[in-house]
Amino acid sequence: MTTFVFRKSSYSNGQEECVEVATNAPDVVAVRDSKAPDGPILRFTPAAWAAFRDAIVEEG
Prior knowledge:
Layout (H helix, E strand, L loop, with lengths): L6 E2 L10 E4 L6 E5 L8 E3 L1 H14 L1
Antiparallel strand pairs: 1-2, 2-3, 3-4
């Protein structure tokens, strides 16, 4: 089982809801809710994560 090393977004101020992202495992980007670190983890391929991230940036 992979041990993910999660980091918070640089846009997080520590007070708001945010997600944490782990990119330390090969071929997977893991995402979780920062308020529920023991909760579910979403797993994306790097390409799918990049497409999602780029779509958010374009909308933001």
